[in-house]
Amino acid sequence: MSMLKSRETILALAILALLAAIASRFPGFVSPGNLARVLTDTSPLILLALGQMTVILTKCIDLSVAANLALCGMVAALMNGAGVPLPLILLAVILLGAALGAVNGLLVWKLGIPSIVVTLGTMTIYRGSIFLMTGGAWINAHQMSDAFKAFPRTVVLGLPVMAWIGLAGVAAMALVLTRTPLGRAFHAVGGNPHAAVYTGLSVGRTQCAAFVLSGALAGLTGYLWVARYAVAYVDIAAGFELDVVAACVIGGIAIAGGAGSVAGAVMGALFLGIIKNALPVVGISPFWQMAISGSAILVAIAFNAASQREPGRIILKQAEHRT
Amino acid sequence: MQAEYRPQDGAAPVLSLRGIVKTFPGVRALGGVQLDLYPGQVTALIGENGAGKSTIVKILTGIYQPDEGEILVDGRRVALPTAQAAGEAGVTAIHQETVLFDELTVAENIFIGHAPRNRWGLIDRRAMRGRARAILDGIGADLNPAVRLRDLGIASKHLVAIARALSIDARVVIMDEPTAALSHKEIAELYDLVEKLKAQGKAILFISHKFDEIFRIADRWTVFRDGQFVDQGLMQDVAEADLVRMMVGRSVDQIYPKRPARIGEPVLTVAGYSHPTEFADITFTLHRGEILGFYGLVGAGRSEVMQALFGITRPSKGACRIEGKVRVIRSPAQAVEAGIVYVPEDRGRQGAVKGLPIFQNVTLPSLARTSRVGFLRLTEEFALAREYTQRLDLRAASLDQDVALLSGGNQQKVVIAKWLATRPRVIILDEPTKGIDIGSKAAVHDFMSELAAQGLSVIMVSSEIPEVLGMSDRVIVMREGRIAGEFAGERMTPENLVRAAVGLDRSAPPPGEGEAA
Questions:
Q1: Where do the CATH 3.40.50.300 domains begin and end in chain B?
Q2: Fold for the domain defined by A2-20+41-307
Q3: How far is A111 from chain B (nearest CA, A)?
């Protein structure tokens, strides 16, 4: 546990160092207003990283999150076009996202197919469905109602609703992961699936639950994304699943399962969000941005690998108490 | 007995071990053993589970290094620091679980690591196939060298393993329970093959639990017990009863704190439990306050029966009653609900969840009780974990500590505490003291006794005769998936248990008949 905490402390320090470095040349970047903008902009990544984290905790991976987001976003836009009120749209995208997640989860659970294969397949199917629904047509800003577009941007208590939803997601997931039997099951199933079976936990059902959570968050984010950018088409958020996985890896979520925390996922997402928002300010080309994100991932993985090296057996009696 | 051994027939051993000591943390696996292997002869290595047979095989094949002692080949001292060095010294092993590569061809498997090369330094496939063909013909194996291994049956894979052993011009062939997975016909073929190898002058170390085959095939015997050399000699000079006595006879150096228990009414009744491939006709009754030992050789099906009782696998036939009520157990969750818990043998894989703190490991199956309206209550969890870890005298800095940082004995206590916290009626302990130090062993035994005294019913699966005899009120012996005998009171002797386990019991069907499925 102390190791985990220190890993998160180091990540927090890295984020602060990054902010300090940017602020030394562009003090405006760390103004409260701009930081709020960065948080708002990073909220979709945070929401998806929270879902992805639970999936990775159970030794799986969800590559279909971005396609799920895009499909739910398109459905939200279409429902808006049909005059459905916003609360119903929100409910519908969350349920649809959860259902799409459940498809992944059931395939992993009932058929025992590796999650990377399942979600690689459903990722393509979900994107393809958008095309089938729209024939490839775009839904543009003028085809969306004002209320639909305004909701994520509405400022409440100094922050846009979008940022508040991100924060609410963080709080809710922190509660689920640390204070519910399900959250405990995510850790147990990923940490030692064999032991989990002997404890009476169903590994498959737990993994399925993680996919449902991840899907529901992707569905909600789908609406936020489409409303904020005021456009919906087949390819929105294309490739975004890799950013999400990257945020988790940077946040210290072990790809082998079992280890990770909400704080890690959030900070991993913020780290990427800050880089993405800062580079244009600093005047570095977006191509460098990719190289920097990539390097951050490698550094994070190298760091995790070093800290996860087997500490060796504890044979000395006094060593048991020292930890 | 440790005196210099002189073979009666004057032949010189190809390979000898002298005074081999091998220690693992907390365990002395071998305490100065000797072994002699003679050309053209089969030496049977006999011993109970845990006698040190597997360790000696690993030392001979260069996987383990002895702490003390010497290895002599043709009377010259050699070192076998790697598997390759062992191969070059002419030692090769055919393992219990054949270690071959399913996706490669027969020829590639035979020559992996020493494939013939052509003048460009590339693998000469044609030469490899030709030589593979020659070796296979030499052992009378009708196999196509070009076929992939995964398409072959177990017996054919054994032949490939043997061909591989011969391809490196082995002088010493180790066969570690080679007949364990074979049918009667295949076993007969294996015997023919052993005769061929003998005729070629190979020295064969034959490890087996089956007395009938030892007497049929071996020329010499060596007995180990608890990592010690007991004696060796020629098969023609020894009787079965002598070997059994040498295997089990031991000094009473461990004290078992078994208290006289008040045995009550039946708690668990199992009738006719059967599984298509693992066990058949398992019928027994467990009473309140009783410790029921399950003894047998490794692979006799004891753990499989326990896993079925716990809902990990499903029996095809049979019924299980708990306190008179028929219970259908289809999942571990149902077993826990019915009051049966299972502490598995493989703690690393099946026991503790490493990465979770101690208290979370303890409360994992009891979360329904420690949470309210779907939310965990950490204070309740801590209280529950503290109660049961204190009862087991767990040594840990804090219950918040990662369970992975505990020693094996303490991890075992965490797993047992986890199950006791569910307040079970029946607790199944599968090899409860395997691989833990003597001190923790005594604590586990003490605790087991206390549990029984408190009215819990205990099933203890153990391969250690002293533990079985010391702790159990009654012992069931399993052999090849069936109950081979039940012993209590005066009939609970080491000899009776071992005879039943290896199939020498007169009441059991003779080996080779009756039990063919």
A1: 1-90+170-250, 266-352+424-502
A2: ABC transporter involved in vitamin B12 uptake, BtuC (1.10.3470)
A3: 18
Give the whole-angstrom CA distance, residue B91 versus residue B110. Answer: 15
Chain B residues contacting A via beta carbons under 8 Å? 25-26, 310, 312, 331-333, 335-336, 342, 344, 346, 349-357, 360, 364-365, 367-368, 371, 374-376, 395-397, 400-402, 405-407, 410, 418
Q: Which two tokens stand for residue A75?
A: 């459905």
What pLDDT does B98 receive? 58
A274 and A247 in contact (C-beta within 8 Å)? no
DSSP state of A232: B
Best of B341, B356, B438 to substitute, by most chain A Cβ atoms within 10 angstroms, is B356
Task: Say whether B407 and A320 touch across the interface (CB within 8 A).
Answer: yes
Distance from the B430 Cα atom to the nearest Cα atom in chain A, whole angstroms: 13
Token pair 């260069």 in the structure block, residue: B62
Q: Say which residues have a Cβ less than 8 Å from residue B123's Cβ, sequence separation at least 6.
A: B115, B116, B117
Whether residue A46 has pLDDT greater than 80: yes
Q: Is there a contact between A197 and B332 if contact means CB atoms under 8 Å apart?
A: yes
Question: Which of A195, A314, A320 minimises the CB distance to B353?
Answer: A195
Residue of B nearest to A197 (CA): B332
CB contact under 8 A, A321 and B397: yes
Each domain of chain A, given as residue ranges in start order, spans 2-20+41-307
- Please tell me the distance from the alpha carbon of residue B124 to that of residue B160, in angstroms, as a whole number: 19
Q: How far is CA A158 from CA A37, A168, B201, in A?
A: 11, 15, 90
β-bridge partners, B117: B123
Q: Enumerate the β-bridge partners of residue B123.
A: B117
Is B1-90+170-250 a CATH 1.10.540.10 domain?
no
Q: Of A1, A183, A321, which has the smallest distance from its Cβ to B402's Cβ?
A: A1
- For the whole prediction, is pTM greater than 0.80? no
Nearest to A17 by CA among A7, A6, A30, A5: A30
ipTM > 0.95?
A: no
pLDDT band at B378 (very low <50, low <70, confident <90, very high): confident
Q: Which helix (H) or strand (E) holds B19?
A: strand B15-24
CB A256 within 8 A of CB A310: no
Interface touch B364/A180, C-beta < 8 Å: no
Q: Phi/psi of residue B104, each to 5°? A: -100, 165
pLDDT digits (tens, 9 = 90+) for B406-443: 777 778 788 888 888 888 999 999 888 776 655 667 77
Q: Is A23 exposed, middle or buried (0-12, 13-18, 19+ CB in 10 A)?
A: middle
Higher pLDDT, A189 or B514: A189
Shortest CB distance from B353 goes to which of A178, A196, A315? A196
Residues B8, B12, B15, B18, CA torsion sign: positive
Sign (positive/negative) of CA torsion B315, B321, B327, B332? negative
Q: Quick check: A165 and A42 in contact, CB under 8 A?
A: no
Find how far residue B385's CA is from the centre of its chain.
33
C-alpha dihedral over B86, B88, B89, B91, to 10 degrees?
50
Q: What is the pLDDT of residues A205-252, one digit of tens each?
A: 999 999 999 999 999 999 999 999 999 999 999 889 999 999 999 898
E runs forming strands in chain A = 155-156, 159-160
Chain B nearest C-alpha distance from A36 (Å): 32
Tell me which residue has tokens 């059902």: A205
H or E, element range at B161: helix B154-167
Which CATH number is B266-352+424-502 given?
Answer: 3.40.50.300
What does the pLDDT look like over A239-250, one tens digit per residue?
Answer: 899 999 999 998
In sequence order, the 6+-apart residues with CB closer than 8 A to the CB of A31 are none
**Greatest extent of chain B over all pairs of C-alpha atoms, in Å:** 81
